[in-house]
Specification:
single chain; 5-stranded mixed sheet; Translation Initiation Factor Eif1; globular
Length: about 120
């Protein structure tokens, strides 16, 4: 009796159309571009942040590990907090000019966007 129920008890699935779990095969790879080929935009924003200014760096095309390392470096050099959200880096405070200089030294193409 237990041999007939063995398939339905695997990983808690009652029914699965394709058999084994190939979630890694269905993920789309993100192309990792070298810094020289990335055009980054740096802008200050207050939208949806209760009046607090945040410097947003967008335009990244790379892996999450690369972004995590970069945000750690920027936070250290700016002396403030920050995070990665939706493939964008957010650094607390208005540090547009300083961040552009740091990114250019690291080999990125960066420019200030907006007012």
């Amino acid at each position: 009796m237990s041999s007939s129920n063995s398939k339905s008890s695997d990983k808690g699935f009652v029914y699965r159309e394709f058999g084994n779990d190939n979630s890694a095969a269905t993920e789309r790879p993100i192309p990792e571009l070298p810094p020289q080929q990335q055009n980054l935009k740096v802008q200050a924003s207050r939208k949806g942040r209760k009046g607090k200014t945040v410097t947003v760096i967008s335009g990244f095309q790379g892996k999450a590990e690369t972004l995590d390392n970069l945000v750690k470096q920027l936070k250290t050099q700016c002396g403030t907090g920050g995070t990665v959200k939706d493939n964008e880096i957010e650094i607390q405070g208005e540090h547009k000019q300083k961040i552009v200089e740091i990114l250019i030294k690291l080999g990125y193409k960066a420019k200030i966007s907006g007012g």
